[in-house]
Amino acid sequence: MNGRLDRAGSGKDSYPRLRRCVTFNVIQNPPNYAVLSVQVPRDVDSLPITVNNLGAAGEPGAFAFRSPTLRAVATNIKPAYANVWNLSLERELTRGTVAALEYSGSRGIHGYNIGNVNDVGYGPAFLGIGCDGAGGANCANPYQQLNLQYNYTNYRSNGNDSWHDALNAKVSSSNLFKQGLNLNANYTWSHTIDYLSATFGGSDEWGGQALGTLDPFNPSLDKGDSDYDVRNRVALSAVWDPPYAQHTHGVMKEIADGWEFAPIFTASSGYPYTIYDCTNEYTVYVCPRYIPSGAVGRKGTSNSSAGNAIGTNLYAYETVPAPLVYGGIGGNSGVPTCATDPNTGLSLGTNCVWPSNMTARNAFRQPGVWNFNMGLYKTFKVTEKVNLQFRSEFYNLFNHSNYYVQTGNLDNIGGLADVNNLAYTSAGNCANYSNGGPNNGQIEYFQYNSATQSCTTTPAPYTLAGKRGVQSQAFGVGTGSLGERRFIQFALRISF
């Protein structure tokens, strides 16, 4: 470039295919095929393993099958596409050293979504059906579905938009100052927003939002930071081949020449996560999000001192205020509150809203992480055409343990959108949500006084825990089960 400023830019549209497994599932519908759900103890007292090809249906006794579930695709589904654009500026600072500033952006439109549009309680909540003419607390069957002929209906449609912006600044150098040093330095700022980060939603969020968006009829309610949104990232790498012994001979050349050092350092800010509150929730695939009773921070502390320990390698990351009660018709917190007929109290299915103080999807942040790897290589010349290289590579050279919030997610490489289920982690506290809807806006849990064996009037907060070196996991399994550690490997390579 000879010191010149180079500019480049481009834009394009991208059209992804509708996933084959999505369309393939349509064959799993009546009349030629049906998916039935048999659950314990809802349908049977037990469900032993059987060698009968008909499974539970081939066992002695009788029980009523539930209606079959459906897989449906919207008849007017639109092709998903993304507008992509980028711009880059490059400048040669010195011979062999280039600085660049690069921008990339995208706008995803009509992204695919899968949601259960026939969940428990949707009948009374959206159409006022199942209540025998009396709405609100007098609804006869607050758990009725919209369609009684079929069970849960996984509906494939357009329901996901996305926005992405990224700015990368980098410097790269080859043989810097003629010292055999090749250097790359990158800093990236980025921000990604979407309604959901996978076609199947948070399928790894056990006990939280396992499919689609919170409200399948209003997917924009889940607009928030993407599961993989990382705002800041630094990556530094180098390969240094010291030139100082190139012209030596004999033993000195064998000892001092042929060395190569290759360090790699990366650091990034933390991934986002969501706090759910599944109290009073009767829907199958989704949970409403946490409603705080006071000011709440978006990030905790990675302090892992003994004073902050709450267990073995378990530390208090953040303590959030006690949640507030929310419940729609019948106290079901998995449905919104819609406008009602003033005469009957039945839902009109319009102006459906969720609590305005409900926290957003991916509103909370984990701590950042960093890692340092190192490669050390020595090349020996065997003959004129044959070289032997001894390679030693150190992964996590300093045996550093990053801090990970333990959110109960099954598959969490650093922190995708995660689940904190307040309903199941407040054992020992006094619940104040038994009446569901009538208690809306009140404190959900109060502290229990073990000395007096009575409930207090002190709200019970909730503590999110973190671990050093162990990524989040559910039920004791997951990507972080073994924890972070230093790995060293040695190898010999012959080149000829």
How would the blueprint of this fold be written?
Layout: E1 5-14, H1 20-24, E2 70-73, E3 81-94, E4 97-116, H2 122-127, E5 153-173, E6 181-194, E7 224-225, E8 232-240, H3 250-256, E9 259-268, E10 272-273, E11 309-311, E12 314-320, E13 364-365, E14 369-381, E15 387-395, E16 403-405, E17 430-431, E18 445-449, E19 454-459, E20 462-468, E21 487-495
Parallel strand pairs: 2-5
Antiparallel strand pairs: 1-3, 3-4, 4-5, 5-6, 6-7, 6-8, 8-9, 9-14, 10-13, 11-12, 12-20, 14-15, 15-21, 16-20, 17-18, 18-19
Count of DSSP-assigned helices:
3
Mass-distribution shape: elongated
The share of residues in helices is under 10%
Structural class: mainly beta
Radius of gyration of CA atoms, rounded to a whole number: 29 Å
Poorly predicted spans: 410-421
Mean pLDDT: 82
Distance between the termini: 35 Å
Strand-residue fraction?
25-35%
Extended strand count: 21
